From TrEMBL:
The chain crosses the membrane at residues 12-37, 49-66, 78-96, 136-162, 168-188, 219-240, 260-278, 285-304, 310-335, 347-367, 373-396. InterPro entries: MFS (IPR011701), MFS_dom (IPR020846), MFS_Efflux_Transporters (IPR050189), MFS_trans_sf (IPR036259). It is a multi-pass membrane protein. GO terms for cellular component: plasma membrane. It is found in: Cell membrane. This is Major Facilitator Superfamily protein. Keywords: Cell membrane, Membrane, Transmembrane, Transmembrane helix. The keyword Heme does not apply. Its main location: membrane.
């Protein structure tokens, strides 16, 4: 492992920087400024939530349309370009003279952060690594939990010193002066372990290099759709409704805070374990177990009377989140080949972004209708159990396509 890290530090560092900096466009980061933004623009909880959902859905649409640039534009150019647009969005959050500008800024934040930064990182790892792709992906995905663990407290302190608008200006400066130049340098050289010709000839299912339109028409991608939607949906709504959960359970948000550390740490451990297992046994064998921890974790929320149960629930949910980052990063090249990996991944990323947009709205309507989130959590746990069986059935059929007689 040390030799692997030393020999590939440049490329792994670029991927890790992309996932870490994607934090500036993630829901949990933006939510730290929600009180100030709503006060500045006179928004209610409902109007703020609707604006956020609309911006996220629009970013998913653009992700579907332009995500294929990762196949046609050198990543050493694409990543810094996205970083500059990202910085412009951060400036818009600080300046925003109107709700329209705020909405545009949110749209660009979501597209660049949750969308393109993560998409470029995973596309690069899938294309540049083969024999140790799982380890490369798991190392790169560490940027996500690292941001979740390190940034919230730091941002709260910065808001106290610089103000919320000053903190967004600092984010913009970091993206322009630090992130963009580093990405230019780290991604300046591509990597291919077996040569360009051999890489392009590395096929997926049925010995083919799949294009996105072909993948959409094939049975597998529609079958994977609910599996792709589930982790983002459940994780987002757990975070989004934490105040409601606290009210129902009689906990305080301060008491619940250590749960996010447990979530981040379990995500890290699971990402490494899944990356190793994907290289050792094959990513496809991990698919049936992907949603099992999340199902157990979310189901624990309903009966938990002590806040300790909340910590355990988030820790177990984090296992699926860590597994998912490593699993999809390794599995998509196996299923669809590497020639059009950016276009294929952009579709999957679009699906995941949509899941984070629709989750809060659907569950919020149910809460307003008298169905509390703890009750919903039990249903989500059962859904994950059904999806685990579904994944097992998918795996059996895919194995026949990957290994035709």
């Amino acid at each position: 492992m040390l030799s692997f890290l030393r020999n590939n530090l440049r490329w792994l560092g670029g991927g890790l920087l992309l996932t870490f900096a994607s934090a500036f466009g993630q829901t949990w980061f933006i939510s730290l400024f929600a009180v100030f933004i709503k006060d500045q623009h006179g928004l209610s909880d409902g109007s703020w939530g609707s604006l956020y959902t609309a911006a996220t859905l629009a970013s998913a649409g653009l992700m579907f349309w332009r995500g294929g640039m990762a196949d046609s534009v050198p990543l050493s150019r694409l990543a810094p370009m996205v970083a500059l647009v990202f910085a412009l969005a951060a400036l818009g959050m600080a300046w925003a003279p109107s709700v329209a500008v705020l909405g545009l800024s949110l749209f660009l934040l979501r597209f660049c952060g949750q969308g393109m930064f993560s998409h470029i990182a995973m596309t690069a790892m899938g294309r540049w690594f083969e024999a140790r792709r799982g380890q490369a992906v798991s190392i790169t995905t560490l940027g996500h939990p690292a941001g979740e663990i390190l940034m919230p407290l730091l941002v709260v302190l910065l808001i106290g010193v610089l103000g919320w608008q000053g903190t967004w200006l600092l984010v913009a400066a970091l993206l322009v002066l630090v992130v963009a130049p580093l990405l230019c340098w780290l991604l300046a050289e591509g990597r291919d372990p077996v040569g360009q010709a051999a890489r392009i000839q590395s096929p997926g299912l049925l010995g083919r290099q799949w294009q996105r339109r072909d993948a959409v028409r094939h049975w597998l991608l529609p079958a994977l759709l609910p599996v792709l939607l589930t982790p983002g949906f459940i994780t987002t709504v757990i975070f989004f409704h934490q105040a409601h959960i606290a009210q129902v359970k009689g906990w305080t948000l301060a008491e619940m805070a250590p749960g996010y550390t447990a979530f981040g740490l379990s995500t890290v451990v699971a990402a490494f374990a899944a990356g190793w297992a994907a290289d050792r046994f094959g990513a496809l064998r991990l698919l049936p177990g992907l949603l099992v921890p999340m199902g157990l974790g979310v189901a624990l929320i309903a009966p938990s009377g002590s806040v300790t149960g909340w910590y355990l629930a988030l820790a177990v949910v984090g296992m699926t989140q860590g597994m998912a980052g490593s699993l999809w990063g390794v599995l998509f090249p196996v299923l669809y080949g590497t020639a059009h990996l950016g276009a294929i991944r952009s579709l999957a990323t679009t699906i995941m972004v949509v899941s984070t947009a629709i989750g809060p709205g659907i569950t919020g309507i149910l809460i307003d209708g008298g169905i509390g989130f703890p009750a919903q959590a039990a249903v989500m746990g059962a859904w994950c159990a059904v999806m685990a069986l579904w994944c097992w059935m998918i795996t059996l059929r895919v194995q026949r396509d990957l290994n035709p007689a």
